[in-house]
Input
Amino acid sequence: MTPEADVLHRFEDRAAAQLRKKRLPLIIGRATDAREARRREAFGLVDAAGLRAAAEAVRAHTVANLPVYLDRFASNAEARGTRVFFASTAGDAVDYIRTVVADRGARLVAKGKSMAAEEIGLNHALEADGVDVVETDLGEYIVQMAGEPPSHITAPAVHKTRDEVARLFSARHGRSFPDDAEVLTAFAREVLREVFLRADIGISGVNFAIAETGSFVIVTNEGNGRMVTSLPRVHIALMGMERIVPSHRELALMLPMLVTSASGRPVTTYFSFINGPRLPDESDGPDEVHVVVLDNGRSKILGTEFQSILHCIRCGACQNVCPVYRQVGGHGYGAVYGGPIGAVLTPLLVGFERAGDLPHASSLCGACTEVCPVGIPLHEHLLALRREVAKADRPVVEITAFRVWSTAWRRARRYRFFVHLSRLGQRMLVRRNRIPRAPFPLSKWTRGRDLPPVARETFRERWERGLQDEGN
Ligand code: SF4
Output
């Protein structure tokens, strides 16, 4: 998905298309319920509130001092031989990576999971240069085969059933596969092993970069992160500029918070620490390591009331509990990041013109805020964004309509006249004391709900006719 094509202005249309997939909420619900139940159970065994407060403090401190920690990270990483490139825009990041890939004459890239790479449309750019890019995370491998973007931050193929995956494998590899997870996984492993061995370049995301040491950490369940970062001769890691921790001390808190919030498990299978290119006495590892630090709109969020959205550690817990996400899935949002995190982050990154309707993709129930391991007040951000969008994007028709409304209702006599007029006008529309279908512009409202009719009598009229007596 290219960054230009990834956001559709109308969430409504995308959501409607997703809602036609009747089994989708069931499939997503099953997967996200299991994760959420495990998460709740795991946090029930510890001082969850205390850990969350500590994690929130770490993220708030780090993001508030981002330039200091980024500088420290860059000088320590460079001292270890890593090349650090600061990319202001998606285009800068793509250009840099393309150049490295082209200069090394690379034809095959083994790619680890990276939401930042989705954000900048990296695969499309490299493929346009004739480079074969293979996703090596199993979920990403599946959605790549389907020609789709990921539907969830940590579970990209959450919207697919086993039989759908079996059909995909069969179509792609020209033989019939049973809907057996073990068989499918074993086959994917076989294919991907070849890719790891043959790839000229490995590209990965970054879960955390450590300012104190200039290293970075990748968290995976499947071990593909370790292969991608150690087998190809060149490694390129792409990180959002906020994905940094001051030292190992803070990392020791953030890693379990990430893993438990993402999967409900206390620990994941692989934590890979990349300290730089292979040293002369080391037996494996790449000869070259590049880290691309991506801004792409993040720095303009710094210092605003939305700064805490940069505390996000991409665990996906808010997606699991969001009643809107659970109905429409990640693709309903038409953006790289779906669910509550996406509904806040996307309009801030790409602008209200392109994603101003996403903050409305929420019931404001606050479940997202409750589960966020770093205490981001997601539902409050959604509300504040709606306010901002309304200020920035009110159509002239709406402004005029409210002006007329306010003029009409400001004086008692005018108010009474309009109430009388509405009562007359609604006669043809009222059915069983409701208005099920109103004319434009109120038709938008009645598309999803009934409109209550204007009362037969106003309070004043009842009062004048002797309301005092009614109450006695
Ligand atoms: S906003 Fe919070 S819950 Fe959602 S992905 Fe980010 S860290 Fe996780």
